[in-house]
Amino acid sequence: MTDHPSLQPYVDAWTESIEAISELVRPLAEGEWNRRTACPGWSVRDVVSHIIGMECELLGDPRPIHTLPRDLYHVVDEPSRHMEIQVDVRRHHTGPEMTSELEYTIIRRSRQLRNEKREPDAEVRDIMPGGSKVTLEHQLRLRAFDVWVHEQDLRRALGKPANLDSPGAAVARDVLVLGLPKVVAKKAGAPANTAVVFDVSGPMEFMRTVRVGADGRGTVDGSPSLGPAATLSLDWETYVRLAAGRVRADAVAEQVKVEGDAKLAKAILENFTVTP
């Protein structure tokens, strides 16, 4: 256990999700590692490679020296290029090689987290390019979020649904909800002094209201609105897929019920992605 209780929920969520991934992929036949996922250009193997690579960087392992092929259509900018290196170096690894490295990485990283002595607000290096600093708490929250979202990517690709109400799901809910004000007020251009309600059903049931102030800025809270401009009702898994950029709005139109301003709701759904 870490020295600081405020960090433990993120460590616990990360642990449950990454161990679930290990259990999920351990029995895979070689061909199953090549199944496509909803992450553009990534197979099951690639998603697991990404997880291994990110955790190895947090362990302080040197980044691989590797030149990417030029025909990777999904590599479009420096962040995606940065992440792809850890993926591409493992593209020819066998299933047993992948599971062994994942299990060893989990052991090492779990030990590191158990021995964590830094304060939650300690500045740490962001593993993405740019050299910016983030707090340790922020870093652990995003790792719990990232690993849970990728667990769901793998489960959908392999037809093994589960853990939509796990501790990682709760972390994901909180992270994704934080992006709603930008989606509504900035991306979708909701008018000032309006409110939009998101009514989410299923394993992670919740309701949130985004209010756009007179200054055009959005805020989000859990209190209901008596006269929202629009209400969007959808299930939790569809919410995650949209917010994480795993599916286009038109592909899940039947899973989303809209009341009120249909034009505004359409703009929100078309700009729902909040992940990089």
From TrEMBL:
Annotated SUPFAM superfamilies: DinB/YfiT-like putative metalloenzymes
Sequence ranges assigned to domain MDMPI C-terminal in this UniProt record: 172-265
InterPro entries on file: DinB/YfiT-like (IPR034660), Maleyloyr_isom (IPR017517), MDMPI_C-term_domain (IPR010872), MDMPI_metal-binding (IPR024344)
Stretches assigned to the Mycothiol-dependent maleylpyruvate isomerase metal-binding domain: 15-155
A GO term for molecular function: metal ion binding
Entry-linked Pfam families: MDMPI_C (PF07398), MDMPI_N (PF11716)
Protein name as annotated: Mycothiol-dependent maleylpyruvate isomerase metal-binding domain-containing protein
Lineage of the species this protein comes from: Bacteria, Bacillati, Actinomycetota, Actinomycetes, Kitasatosporales
